[in-house]
Amino acid sequence: MDAAKQSTARSAARIFGIGALALLAAAGSAEGQERDRHAGYYYPPATVSEAYQPEATTLAGANRVRRIGFITIIVNKSLAASFPPPYMMFVKGDQGEKLIIIGMGDYLGNVFQARGLLAQLTAQARTTDVFKEVDPEYRLTFLDLLKMLGFEQVTVSDGKTYTLQIAIK
What are the pLDDT digits (tens) for 124-134? Predict the structure, then answer.
């Protein structure tokens, strides 16, 4: 092969290589968006990711309608208060398997406050009849209740600077 053909072949290989890298990067980016398509829309990308291994198991009959209904009850109670809600909760995912909690205003200013909210939601959940029946000794948490309802992930964010994302195993 003469020098001109070798140079052309090397240039083509470089261009193909750059194009292939761009395609791989785009595919990787699309894959990341596929994993969490709500990041960048409702909250910043996860800054803290955790996994929670619940003691509870998913209840028979746990489905999308029940998950949405449960969160709707919590939200309606919050909206009925005489002050604006400090956070919003909503269900996402094809099967309603993701719970998203976004702080309003300056509420939930950091990941520690997000964990505090989850602890406070545990205290609230323990007053429900379902929780009293399955956990009379108060060993389970709000995340256990989410597992019982079939949630797979909870995301808590201030909607500005951080996002705590917990996979419920």
Answer: 888 877 778 88
pLDDT band for 166, please (50, 70, 90 cuts).
very high
For residues 105 and 161, membership in a common domain is answered with yes
Domain coverage including residue 110: 48-168
In this structure, are 20 and 81 located in the same domain? Answer: no
Q: What is the DSSP letter of 98?
A: E
Give the C-alpha separation, 141 to 157, whole Å: 19
Residue matched to tokens 């449960």: 70
**Cβ pair 31, 149 in contact under 8 A:** no
Contact 64, 95 (CB under 8 A): yes
Task: Please name which of 55, 34, 38, 63 lies closest in space to residue 151, comparing C-alpha atoms.
Answer: 63
Question: Do 23 and 92 fall within a single domain?
Answer: no
